[in-house]
Amino acid sequence: MSERKKDHYYRLAKQKGYRSRAAYKLIQINRKFNVIKKGYVVVDLGAAPGGWSQVAKEIVGEMGRVVAVDLLKIKPIDGVDFYRGDIRDKEFIEDLLASIDKKVDIVISDMLPKTTGNRSMDHARSIELCEHAFNFTKHVLRPKGNFVVKAFEGDLFNSYFNKIKENFRFCKAHGPKASIKSTKEIYVIAKHFKR
């Protein structure tokens, strides 16, 4: 806890009223790659505690929509629609798709598996979640839409990255400055969905 309190982005998030320091990862990603714009429909997978949803809502404004999805309950956020469920559950996905009822401009995913401390196992679980995020994205994303997903680096990453690359006109692996140096997390930034 004392380490967290010393962390620049942790303190900044507290000052600005963001629910997590991760908010700054999305802010930095969007400044660099311009993946979310005013008026967009955004789906935030693995949204708890809501930092990314807060940032997304600030960007899209009143004309946009943010749909937050997580297994965990999230305290309400003004202007954000929350759906509690598992994106690995087909029934939940069908209900979610029906409730969104229009094509999505971007899917963002900061999901992580419960970590075990075993790097290769955590990496494999992370890629499995990324696969589910991409399968969902293929169903909802409009042509030329965008996708941002977090993964743990490891031997399965390149294969996953190449699959995303085949489906988007622009694809890049990126580590925002707000990422904690000791983690092995990397973000895939994908733009212009080929549909």
Q: Concise description?
A:
This protein is an alpha/beta fold and 195 residues long. The protein is built from seven helices and seven strands; from the N terminus they run αααβαββαβαβαββ. Helix 3 packs parallel to helix 4.
SSE inventory with pairings:
Layout: H1 2-6, H2 8-16, H3 23-33, E1 41-45, H4 51-60, E2 65-70, E3 80-84, H5 90-100, E4 104-109, H6 119-140, E5 141-152, H7 157-167, E6 168-174, E7 185-193
Task: Walk me through the structure.
41% of the residues lie in helices and 26% in strands. Helix 4 links the parallel strand 1 and strand 2. It has a 7-stranded mixed β-sheet, with helices on both faces. The chain has 7 helices and 7 strands. The radius of gyration is 16 Å and the shape is globular. The chain has a single domain (2-193), classed as Rossmann fold. The longest helix is centred in the middle third of the chain and has 22 residues, at 119-140. The model is unreliable at 1-5 (pLDDT under 50). The protein has helices at residues 2-6, 8-16, 23-33, 51-60, 90-100, 119-140, 157-167; strands at 41-45, 65-70, 80-84, 104-109, 141-152, 168-174, 185-193. The chain is of the alpha/beta class.
